[in-house]
Design brief:
The protein is an alpha+beta fold and about 170 residues long. Helices cover about 45% and strands about 25% of the residues. A four-stranded mixed beta sheet has the order 6-5-4-7, with helices on one face. The chain has a three-stranded antiparallel beta sheet with strand order 1-3-2. A hairpin with a 2-residue loop joins strand 2 and strand 3 (about 65-70). It is elongated, with a radius of gyration of 17 Å. The model has no long low-confidence stretch (mean pLDDT about 90).
Amino acid sequence: MLDNLITSKTRLKLLVKFFSNVNNQGHLRGLADEFGESTNSIRKELNNLSHAGFLVKVAEKNRIEYQANPHHPLFSNLQDIIRNYLGFDRLVEAVLERMGEVNEVILTGDYAQGIDSGTIEVMIKGEALNESYLEHLTGRIEELIERKVKFKVNQEIDSKDCLTLFKK
């Protein structure tokens, strides 16, 4: 539905990249390679979003890194919109519904890095978790958010490439 409101696919990809996880950052060429688009279209949208104050530029070595501006008055609203667009709210709600004693729900993989690849990887940590419920939940969630979901339970992860969606 958000893609009907934001008609520029490049702008939507950039908003997903930077607002799904506030720690995500990127530079012009890297973003062009990641999205498979021309540097010119990426540059245009980065300039528009920076000029509006949604992104900040950070000089790093010989290039400019962009990241979300958490001080923008609409930052939290935009972050909520992007996370709802990706289905994170419905995913967490479904997991907490009948999984048992959930301590954390952590996003890993592409979506934690702001890449809308179509496969959401989720780590669930807790005690006495109802793992058989995950088989039923996976199909229901995939239909609800229109993305593939892979669940992992109580495994170790690299904390720098993750996004905590829920913590008890």
